[in-house]
Every structure is written in structure tokens, then in C-alpha cells.
Design goal:
It is a single chain. By secondary structure, the protein is of the alpha/beta class. It has two domains: 117 residues, NAD(P)-binding Rossmann-like Domain (Rossmann fold), CATH 3.40.50.720; 79 residues, Regulator of K+ conductance, C-terminal domain (Alpha-Beta Plaits, 2-Layer Sandwich), CATH 3.30.70.1450. It is built from nine helices and eleven strands. Helix 4 packs parallel to helix 5. The longest helix has 14 residues. The radius of gyration is 22 Å and the shape is elongated. The termini are far apart. The N terminus is likely disordered.
Length: 223
């Protein structure tokens, strides 16, 4: 076992697997000041991250190992193992049996995700698919940023269509016409401001909008 610091277990995050997804998540949580403990069975990865993360070498597919490292005491667990379907399912099932309040699990396919949900994962994430979806929207040139939150609800950063330029939001009636909401506006040299009906849009502004992905795409496609 190699540790950098002792995490506070009652409010911590247990991250299982230090591949690209798990290590990125664990290091970000640690940098943000969250109590995190990483679990990895590969000696090479343990050696790589030793001294940089609070971690323990263990096989989380073994329920006894999870018990011994105190997994029951964590409020949130993230299963970052994705390449081995069997290991992913076993680890998630073990955490379900321990009664972990929130279990986030990585899936590499829709079928994998369905299995994880059926055995009790509270949240299933598809890092590769989500990244591909986001980049596809960005390379189209219409959107400057794209974040799908859940069930199609999306937040985007975009340049304003010409028909909105020079008008207030009340005048252009964006929500009525396109079914999307302008959350805020960033003008050059001016701090971001939350939008109101009186907010006037200029050609150089950036809009932060929310709504269903399809509606946002139609709005962004306007000339």
C-alpha cells in the first residue's frame, strides 16, 4: 500500500481503476481538494501513481479486498475499469452489495451500460462516446463548446445568428421561435453576464444557450 495522505472516508470518493479515465478523474478530484482513494491491481500503475495520489493496491473484483480497504465507508464510488467487462460487472456488483450510496460506472458499449444499470449502478458514463459526440459537434464549425447534461438536455457556446444581432432577446424571441434558452452573453472585454429579456446581442458576442440538442443544432445552423 502506498499513500500520499489519509482520506476522510465518510465523505470521500473511491476510484477503482487507474487507466486514462480513472487516473484523470482521481487526479482532478485530488486537485480540487476532495478526499479520494484510488484502487488499482496493476503493480506498474501503482508504482506510476505512488506518491501522487492516495492509493492502495488491491483487486476490487474480490469483495473481501473491498471490505478490507474500507470501501463501505465511502459516499461515492467510481468504477473506471472498462476494458474487462467481467471485472467491471464484478466490481460494480460488489459495491452494490456494500450499499455504496452513489456508484458511477464507466461503460464502453450500450450493452455494457445496460448490464451495469441492471445490477445497480446509479450512473453510467460513456467517456469515449461522449467525447466523440462532443467533438463531432465542434468540428462542424457552428458550435464553440458542447456539453450534453442528460437525456438530450445540452448546453452550448455559440456565435449569434444574424437575425438576433442588434436586437434584445425579447425582440428576437429566441425561446418562442426556436425552443432554446439564452443563459448568458459574453461580450469582448466584458465579463460574462446572465441574460435577461433586455439583453441586446451584438455580432461579436458569444452566447451560452441551453435546450434539447436537436433544437440547439437548428438554432446554431441559422446564418
Amino acid at each position: 500500500m502506498a499513500e500520499k495522505k489519509a482520506p476522510t472516508r465518510d465523505a470521500g470518493v473511491l476510484v477503482v481503476g487507474l487507466g486514462r479515465f480513472g487516473s484523470s478523474l482521481a487526479t482532478t478530484l485530488d486537485r480540487l481538494g476532495q478526499d479520494v482513494l484510488a484502487v488499482e491491481k496493476s503493480p506498474d500503475l501503482i508504482a506510476h501513481w505512488s506518491g501522487r495520489l492516495p492509493l492502495v493496491e488491491a483487486d476490487a473484483s474480490n469483495p473481501t479486498a473491498l471490505e478490507q480497504l474500507g470501501a463501505r465507508d465511502f459516499a461515492v464510488a467510481v468504477v473506471g475499469v472498462g476494458t474487462s467487462l467481467e471485472a467491471s460487472v464484478l466490481i460494480t456488483g460488489n459495491l452494490v452489495d456494500l450499499g455504496t450510496p452513489q456508484i458511477w460506472a464507466k461503460a464502453i458499449s450500450a450493452e455494457h451500460g445496460r448490464i451495469l444499470q441492471r445490477i445497480g449502478a446509479h450512473h453510467v458514463v460513456f467517456p469515449e462516446a461522449d467525447a466523440g459526440n462532443r467533438v463531432a459537434h465542434l468540428v462542424s464549425g457552428k458550435l464553440l463548446d458542447y456539453i450534453e447534461v442528460e437525456d438530450g438536455f445540452t448546453i452550448v457556446k455559440m456565435r449569434p445568428p444574424k437575425e438576433t444581432q442588434g436586437f434584445t432577446l425579447a425582440q428576437s424571441k429566441v425561446r418562442e421561435r426556436y425552443g432554446v434558452t439564452v443563459i448568458g452573453v459574453k461580450s469582448p472585454g466584458i465579463e460574462f453576464v446572465y441574460a435577461t429579456p433586455e439583453t441586446r446581442i451584438s455580432a461579436n458576442d458569444l452566447l451560452v444557450c441551453s435546450g434539447h440538442a436537436e433544437l440547439l443544432e437548428r438554432f446554431a445552423a441559422r446564418p
